[in-house]
Amino acid sequence: MPLDELYRREYGRILASLIRRLRDITLAEDALQEAFAAAVRLWPEQGPPENPVAWLMVTARHKAIDQLRRRTLAENKHEEMITLATPEENAPVPQDTLRLIFTCCHPSLAREAQVALTLRTVCGLSTEEIARAFLVPVPTLAQRLVRAKTKIRLAGIPYEVPDDDELPERLEPVLATLYLVFNEGYSASFGPELVRGNLCAEAIRLGRQLVELLPEAREPRGLLALMLLNDSRRATRTDATGAIVLLEDQDRSRWDRERIAEGAALVESALRGGPPGLYAVQAAIAALHAQAPTWSETDWPQIVQLYGILLRLHPSPVVALNRAAAVAMAEGCERGLALMAGIDLPGYHLLPAARADLLRRLGRRPEAAAAYREALALVNNDAERRYLEGRLREVEAGKP
Amino acid sequence: MLYTLLIYLDEKQFASLPAAEQNRVHQACGAWHEELVRSGHSRGANGLQPSALTATLRERDGRVVVTDGPFAETREILGGFELLECKDRTEAIAIARRFPALQAGATLELRPNVIGNECRAG
Amino acid sequence: MHYLLLVYENTERWSQLPDTGKRQVSDACYQWHDGLTRLGQARAAVGLHPPETATIVRNRGGRIEVVDGPFAETKEVLGGFEHIECKDLDAALAAAKTFPALKAGFAMEVRPVLV
Asked: pTM higher than 0.90, yes or no?
């Protein structure tokens, strides 16, 4: 296996095990970087070792011991030296990855710190890659990472998987972090590039790990299903010029059938065995869309029902807006418009955009144009702006 | 009487002082505290880690929610406290006036303690 | 690790509670403290009289002035704190989560102590 692929696959898992031994994230990161640097130097000359992962773990541990030895001269670090000197397993322990995820997503860290730290440590993304993905200056992101690691150390954030009774609550920020990473890749909230596939791939990879590590938990399966189902449409969400293609107009023959099948099976199992969770219900909606042969043949009544469940689980005007849009499809545009009139979402461009869409379908062109203009005044994303401008030109030109 | 001296400081302003000055203030505060221990006025003291290391808990809709950061988003935050046993408030104020970090911009709030199971005023 | 659990109270909500309600919350808080003592976690506990009883000592242009408090005119004020010693932040959060006055609209801030 090429070294960069090994890095991608194993970095987070090896790091997680090193952190457990060293009790120091920064020390573990430095040692593992040095080990990979040594591999880049030595493997081409000497040929790759028989067990590359074990080689990296042992080498990283030796690098850490070297560093600690230098520190020991100044401070008392005998205890750490003793722990490190004892023999140990040379393969990553899966439980350590879970420990690392829960530490990175501890609720006493800010969400942006959770996201940055998870991508840096568990996924092994570089500071530059993360900064680019979130359009943050590199020094800002580097500082964010340093602060988060300092907080983990000084505030005594543990390196442990929470107990069963704490697990559902502690899973929430973990799932929210993963979904944020996915969505950041799926639909950038600003900036020129709509789809940043790398983040989607990382979020899905992490979602798979989480499902594997917590086979009893249902919501991780719901989230993984949701990400897979959305991702199945990624290639068709924009056209060659980068313009948005609505679900309605997407080329369904290009949707990724493998992802849809995997996602749909996960939805089934996520919904079984208890009351439905937030992600499982959203995934169920995504599955109905993904499995519909055409836009008009979509099972709208069931989608309306699922949005109703979602609204009860998580009352929010955004969910109410989605439900109203589904009602428009199931029961007619007037019904949808009436529901949208009761939704208060100041500053959110998708409400006037959805209203504009229904007004356009009803042929109420001047009202539709006014609503498109309202949406345009609020939108941030270039691709969405171009879409709305196109629609506005159509209704102004009197096209149906 | 038991009093608590709450020490408030502007973390940014304090961090902007030269390192030597920060150390000098820290050492002077340490000496001030040691003196209070010797004179029998101090019943304990704690310095707090920076507010960035804080977690806050609140109850929302029947469940406890943990969030990152201090409770109050203010420029000046609690940096520590000193528990004082004094014969009266005048004595406590006299001690507070000598607190070295006042010169470096800290503010002190002196509050009487609730004793035992007494139901507090107000 | 040492932590300070800072108790912030919503004075408006507190003043609306009937006396029996205040007594109940206050008794439950003492029991909570006793529980932490039995666990060997409690190091010190301080309850403060309300902010109106506060005096401010500060430096204004080089001279020390003493004025009537409190320091910050906010609806939510520091009402006291509990100093605990425990394994890690999760143990401190677990102790904080069971603080009875959270139900009465109080908030709790968990800060690591310099040792």
From this structure: no
